Each structure stands twice: as C-alpha cells, then as structure tokens.
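Severity: low
Component: inverse-folding endpoint
Summary: output formatting inconsistent between runs
Steps to reproduce: submit the following structure tokens with default settings.
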C-alpha cells in the first residue's frame, strides 16, 4: 500500500512539472520542485522491504515475518506475498507455529511472537489463504492433531487454534464441518480440554457461526447426536475440577441464550432447536441438580449449577433492552418458562433451603466495616437469586413449596443479619415484591399471602403442609409468620437509635425503604390491596398504630428527602463542586436512593415520588395530597406566557449595563481601550437572600399572580417599585451555595 502510494505521488510530481512547462507558466515548475523536495525531505521513499525480500532467492518465511508491515501487506492483498504464503511449505510452517510449543530456551517476550503473527496471517480473512487452509486436508489434519495432546493445553496456543478453526467454520463452512463430522472423537477431545476457555469459544462458534439455517440445523442435530448437552451436564458434578465446572456452566448458559436469540431471529425455521430442547427437559435439569447435590456439596458446584438454572429461568433479555422490558411490563414475563424446568427444580427446593441453613464453610474476611466471621458466601447469594426468579414465574406449586419451607423467613433473617450486602438485599426485595404483586395472575389465592387448602398433584413427591390439610387459614406467612411489618418497624427504630448515638446509617436502609414503599403501594392500590388491608388489621393494635405513624410521617419524610435532597445535591455538585452540605444529612449512604431516582429519570417514567417533588421543597407547594404516592397533576396548571417583544425595566437596565461596558466603535480620531476597567453602576439595588427563600418569582406575563401560586411566590403589590413583566427577575438570584 505504501509502495503504491509513493509511486502515485512521484508520478503526480512529474506530471505537474511537465504540465507547467507545457503551459509556460513559471510558477508551476516551482511548485512541482517544492513538492519533489518535500517528498525526499520527509523520506517518503522508504518503501516496504517485503517486495525486495520476495524478489530475492532463498527468502524464508521467518524473514518475512520479521517485517513489521507483513500483516498490513497481507491484508492489503499484496499478490506476491499471498502467493508466497500459500505455498505448501509456508502453510505447513504457519500451522506448526500455532499448534506446537515453541522452544523453552527462547526469551519469554519473544517466545510466542511468531506463533502470534502466524495466527494473524491465517485469520487475516484473505480468500487465497482461506481456500488453501480449508481445502487442504493435510493442513486440517495437522490442526486437528492439536486436540489429541494430553491436557492441559497451552492456553495461548489453544486460543490460536480456536481462532483459526473458528475463522474456517465461518468462511469455509462446508469443508470444515464435513471434516469434523468424520472425526468421531471430536466432541470428546474438545470436552477433554474444556478447562481451556478457548475450547468453550470453539463450541459456541459451531453453534452460532454456521450459515445457512438449514446447514446450521444439521450441525445442531449432529451435536445433539453426540450428546453435547448431557456431557456438559456431567461435568457439573461436585467431584469435577472447578475450572471444568465453571467453563461447562458458562458454555451451557451461552448455548441457552444463543439458542433462544436465534430462535427469535430466524422465524423461517420451524424445527425446534434440539440442544435447547434437551437443556429445558425435566430429565436434564434433574440430572444437573443431582450432580450439584450428590456427594460433598461444594460452593463451586452450587454456584455453577445455579447459574445454569437462573439462565433457564430468564424471562427477558439482559442489558438495557431487558431493563426497558422490566419497566414497561412490570412483573409480567416476556418469556414463558418451560414447566418441565420448574417441575424438576421443585423437589430440590429443600436442598436449597438446607444451603441457606448450612452453607459451605468459609473463613472470616476483613471488610471496610470490620471482620465478618461468617460471610454470606456466593452459594447462599445464588440461592437467594434462584428463589427470586422462581417467585417471578408465578407458578402456584413452586410458590406453595417455598411458602411451606418458610424460605422467605430465612431470607429475611439474612437480610437483617448482613446489613452491608446490597446484592442480597436486592434479591430479598424482589422476592417480597413478587409475592405482593402477583396475587391476580391466577384464580387461586396468592401462595405468599395465604395458606392453601390443598396442594395440587405434581408428580414430584412434594409433601403438603402437615397439620393444615382441608383448612383455609387466613394467616399470611409474609405478614404473620415472617412478621414483615414488625421487622421493618424494629429495624427502622434501631437504625435511628444508632444514628442518634453518632453511628453509621445501616447499608440495607435503602432497600428497606423500597420494601416499605412496595407494601404501602399494594396496600393502597395493588392487586391484592383488600387482602393486605385485612392482614394489616389483624396485626396487634400497638403494631398497627406504629405502622400507621411510620407510613404517615417517617416514610413520607424519607421519600421526600430521598427525592428533593438528591436533586439538590446533584445540582450543587454541578454548579459548585467545591461546596459541601455539611449540615444536611445524606439520605443515601450505601443505599439505592440515587439508583431509584436515576432509573426513574433514565426510563422517563413520571413517577409520583420523582415528579411530585423534583427540585422543590415540600413547603413550596400550597397543596398536599394525603396519599404519599399521589400522581402529580398540577404540572398542567403552570402557565408559561413569554412576550419577547416587551421592553421591561430589567431589559433597559441590562442594556444600559452593556453600553457602559462596551462602547460603540466610531470613526473618531481619539482611540480608547474598550477593556479598561470602569466603575459600573447598577440601577437596581441587590439585596441578599437565603438559598431556600421561596419568595423569588419569575414573572412571565402581565396576568396577576395569585397568592396561592404553586411556586410559592407572593404577588408584587402596587406601588412597591417598578412593575416588571414578561422577564425573569434575576437581580435577587444567588448561586446555590452555602
């Protein structure tokens, strides 16, 4: 590319010189000479040595690979270079470099230099190299021989091998798939090296990079015949190496997501994905759970297995699209979970319950808030995530079993014990919200709200709640047995006491606020508000009184502070980053107040808490609704009527100030420096005001402002100074600083 560019430039210089001489214009030869001088001055004549080396007899591949621009020349389709690289001995050497361990006596920083360059050349997506590599079976055999080595593989060479085979799968699909299908031990060899993440990538390329759709279905059927899913599930056994378990788990999760995404995109394919069908089958899920709990229960096996279950239970896409689905659909699910998955999980809920009681042993850890003698651990956190996902399915039998096992009571115990683990707090919050919000999804009573007469026959061998068959109890496990209301009140009072003594606000208070708000919202207008009202009335009288006082005063004030103070802090930080609000208690240390307000803003939902008080004090509004979640209906009453043609006193003062500062230019002989400092006289007397003085108003029209204005401003009385209309009065405005 450089050679061609330089040749064109030289040709342009001589053409310009010749043309200028022909036209007898003396200026053009000088320009041509200047261009030529610049060309040689900046040493643009340094061409690539690739062509020079190729013209020399006996040049070796290593000599070419020493050149810095060999990759650029290859991708630029340098014909001489490509013809050299595609020779049999060169292709053999390139494949050898990426499949055989380099000598150990080489310096470490240069040991894998040539293997890396060889991989880049083989995967440069040049048709001539792809055709040679994919069409020569001896080269494919040499590549395949890399898998026949004993584990462990060199991870760097494994990545070179995976990248090269993956490129061939995408570019020479028919030839490579035909070759691999002839190798009856291909899947076995790949799984034998699954501890290398590159092998996981190779399997995913086989599933996702094959086109057209008909050929892809043939590949999926071939992988299913090789029992790929069952073999990966076997690697999840507790006795397996943790690295193999982790990679096998990640591979299964990726296959689930890829298969579901491709099923949604390829609408013309009517045949179901065989791998996904096996993954969602009750038999395979049961085998996975058996491998998780058989023998010694390790944290790795529990975490890796639960990750697969969580992926199977995923109801929506991850990322921003999934977040938008969550807010647009509420708790409705965009994907129906296969009932076979739930039926396989149900009999093992007691095993997950046992994990909450007796988790795998972990040593004490040092945190920023002190030493944690018994950490929560990844195993119990994943169990909490699984329970939250199961409750969101609204499956009656699953929810009944969770209710019977008192799983929510255990999760709430952990919520109040581990006050600084926000990952756990989020999952418990989701569990409570699911129980309260899903009561109207079926004709049955909400399993989280009321005990049931009988359990439906599911064929899973689960037991009914002993001692309650045939009874229709009105007690609710969440409010009665779990004592949710009492726990909220006790935790809040204890936190207030700690803060009053100078202690730190607990880290679960943000989630506790949201849980309390969820209860109140469902109590007032939720799908099960009548049920919840009855349950609240059944509380002891003293507890009911405390709850009503808490909702009417403490919770209302907390919601107001979390919205108003949040906006003020953000505004103050943006306007005066150096100022500090030392006398304002921060409402959101270690909680989700910022997260709540930001998500409201990002999703563009005009929620009651966010809009009703956004940017203003509660005292700045003349009307207050009794409902703490009342919708903001006053926004339509604000009238912005601006007349830009009117010339008010403020406008005249502003114009006079400008004329004093910048004088008009004229043709007078005596020049004056317009930037000299001059005394400035303001026509309006500025008086100091407090940051929170609600008396400042912006007048946008000549209409008389009522004293009960929503903005809290008092109308200007006649005779009290000039009548300013149509312009905002900024003379009394001061920056938001303390």
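Observed output (run 2 of 3):
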């Amino acid at each position: 590319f450089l050679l061609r560019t330089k040749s064109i430039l030289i040709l342009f210089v001589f053409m310009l010189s010749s043309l200028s001489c022909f036209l007898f214009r003396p200026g053009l030869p000088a320009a041509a000479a200047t261009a030529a001088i610049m060309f040689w001055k900046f040493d643009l004549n340094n061409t690539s040595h690739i062509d020079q080396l190729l013209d020399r007899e006996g040049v070796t591949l290593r000599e070419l690979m020493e050149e810095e621009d060999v990759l650029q020349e290859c991708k630029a389709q340098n014909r001489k270079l490509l013809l050299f690289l595609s020779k049999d001995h060169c292709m053999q050497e390139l494949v050898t470099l990426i499949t055989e361990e380099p000598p150990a006596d080489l310096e470490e920083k240069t040991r894998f230099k040539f293997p890396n360059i060889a991989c880049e050349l083989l995967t440069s997506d040049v048709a001539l190299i792809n055709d040679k590599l994919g069409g020569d079976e001896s080269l494919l055999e040499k590549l395949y021989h890399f898998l026949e080595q004993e584990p462990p593989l060199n991870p760097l060479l494994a990545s070179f091998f995976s990248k090269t085979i993956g490129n061939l799968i995408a570019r020479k699909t028919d030839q490579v798939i035909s070759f691999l299908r002839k190798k009856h031990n291909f899947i076995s060899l790949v799984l034998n090296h699954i501890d290398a993440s590159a092998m996981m990538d190779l399997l995913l390329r086989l599933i996702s990079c094959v086109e057209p759709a008909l050929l892809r279905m043939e590949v999926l059927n071939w992988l299913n015949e090789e029992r790929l899913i069952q073999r990966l599930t076997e690697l999840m056994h507790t006795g397996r190496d943790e690295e193999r378990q982790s990679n096998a788990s990640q591979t299964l999760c990726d296959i689930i997501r890829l298969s579901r995404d491709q099923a949604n995109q390829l609408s013309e394919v009517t045949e179901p994905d065989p791998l996904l069908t096996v993954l969602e089958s009750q038999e395979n899920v049961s085998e996975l759970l058996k491998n998780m709990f058989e023998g010694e229960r390790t944290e790795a096996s529990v975490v890796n297995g639960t990750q697969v279950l969580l992926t199977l239970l995923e109801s929506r896409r991850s990322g921003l699209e999934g977040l938008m689905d969550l807010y647009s659909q509420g708790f409705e699910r965009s994907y129906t979970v296969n009932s076979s998955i739930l039926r396989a999980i149900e009999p093992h809920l007691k095993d997950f319950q046992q994990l909450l009681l007796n988790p795998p042993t972990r040593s004490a850890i040092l945190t920023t808030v002190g030493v944690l003698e018994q950490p929560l651990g990844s195993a119990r956190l994943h169990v909490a995530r699984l329970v939250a996902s199961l409750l969101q399915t609204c499956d009656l039998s699953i929810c009944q079993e969770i209710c019977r096992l008192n799983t929510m009571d255990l999760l709430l115990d952990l919520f109040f014990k581990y006050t600084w683990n926000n990952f756990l707090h989020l999952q418990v919050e989701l569990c409570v919200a699911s129980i309260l919000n899903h009561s109207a999804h079926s004709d049955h009573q909400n399993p989280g709200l009321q005990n049931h007469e009988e359990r439906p026959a599911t064929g899973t061998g689960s037991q009914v709640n002993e001692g309650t068959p045939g009874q229709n109890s009105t007690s609710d496990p969440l409010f009665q047995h779990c004592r949710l209301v009492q726990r909220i009140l006790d935790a809040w009072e204890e936190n207030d006491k700690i803060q009053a003594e100078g202690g730190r606000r607990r880290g679960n208070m943000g989630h506790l606020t949201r849980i309390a708000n969820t209860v109140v919202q469902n109590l007032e207008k939720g799908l099960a508000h009548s049920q919840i009202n009855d349950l609240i009335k059944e509380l002891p009288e003293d507890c009911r009184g405390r709850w009503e006082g808490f909702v009417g005063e403490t919770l209302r004030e907390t919601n107001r502070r979390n919205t108003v103070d949040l906006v003020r802090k953000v505004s103050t930080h943006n306007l005066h980053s150096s100022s500090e609000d030392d006398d304002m208690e921060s409402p959101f240390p270690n909680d989700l107040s910022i997260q709540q307000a930001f998500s409201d803003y990002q999703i563009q939902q005009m929620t009651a808490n966010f809009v009703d008080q956004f940017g203003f004090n509660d005292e700045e509004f003349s009307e207050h609704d009794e409902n703490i979640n009342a919708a903001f209906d006053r926004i339509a009453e604000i009238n912005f009527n601006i007349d830009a043609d009117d010339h008010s006193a403020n406008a005249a003062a502003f114009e006079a100030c400008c004329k004093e500062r910048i004088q008009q230019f004229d043709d007078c002989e005596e020049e004056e420096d317009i930037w000299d400092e001059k005394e400035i006289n303001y026509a309006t007397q500025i008086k100091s005001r407090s940051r929170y003085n609600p008396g400042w108003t912006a007048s946008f029209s000549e209409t008389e402002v009522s004293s009960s204005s929503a903005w809290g401003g008092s109308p200007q009385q006649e005779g009290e100074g000039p009548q300013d209309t149509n312009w905002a009065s900024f003379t009394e405005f001061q920056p938001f600083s303390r």
